[in-house]
Amino acid sequence: MADLFGNIRLHVPGKRFRNWEQFIRETPDYSIGLEVMDDTPGHRQHHVHFDHHEGVIREATMSAALQAYIAVRQGRLMDKWLRKKRPVDVYTWNADQDVCLAAFVLENHEMLERAEGTPLLRWIVQYNNKIDVCGGLYPFNLDELVKNHFTWVFEPYQQQRRRGKVMGDEDLVRRTIREVCDRLTKLIDGTAGTAPIMAEPEILYKSPYNFVIADEKGDPASRLVLAADGHTNLISLVCTRSTGRRTYSIIRGSPYDDETFDVLKLLEAFQAAEDRPEERIWGGSNLAAGSDSELGSSLEWTEIRDIAEQVVRESWERSMTPTMD
Known about the structure:
- The protein has helices at residues 20-26, 64-73, 77-84, 97-107, 109-113, 119-133, 142-147, 150-153, 157-163, 170-189, 222-228, 263-273, 301-320, and strands spanning 8-11, 31-34, 42-44, 47-50, 88-92, 202-206, 212-215, 233-240, 246-252, 282-284, 288-291.
- By secondary structure, the protein is α/β, with parallel strands linked by helices.
- The chain folds into two domains: 8-189, no CATH class; 202-320, Diaminopimelate Epimerase, Chain A, domain 1 (Roll).
């Protein structure tokens, strides 16, 4: 595929990098990762990783796009690195909203380096940050999201999300990022369209312990609908692949719920129940996690329900037990 960008060269590796050591070893100097590594975000040598999934406190960590925004706006990252190497190599794993927006920030760094910045870009980065940090469960007014073009900008991402991450879809990831970037340009130019929210997530199970299991039916706007309906703790069936394996997400909408919906304990329980327990299928942070976006989970949603109900019930019962002074 011909280069789709000028200041960045986009790479979609066949597998995520396991850690910083592998990322530094297998990529050239002046490389940037966007949610492509099973390790912490940060800056080491001439490598940067923008992420907010592994090894972080989710509610205290900026989204990847906001990390990139500050690195470019305040740190002049791209201005400095492009003097050393052009284009800058950027590695990513998928084309979700945060990655697309981060790629746009890196490619269009000149917009941010001007004294006045770009107010519309600053607005959508901050909007995305709230949604992404909360795993999509931030309670926005849905009509507002349509009127301000947010849903239209990220509409191309729905195609990849509906099918899940599969081997050989590198061109799809690149095209999706390019299409979202083109729509961001139209937003800034004042020529953006609108896209109504058509998502109709199906509630598969509602627990007495304050969580639901829902089928998103492949639409990322489903979580916005669920948040608008007041749901805060969610196990989401994102998609079912042609192989029969499934992609799940676990979202804890708030850290202030007495630890009854413990994401890390749920990850441990789901991992132990998988058909390939030796492979790392489940991972993430304290507020947002899920099954591997490429391999997927072998578990039926009913198995997920039974495991989660036991884990959350035990946590709830512990929280109801009086502590002794």
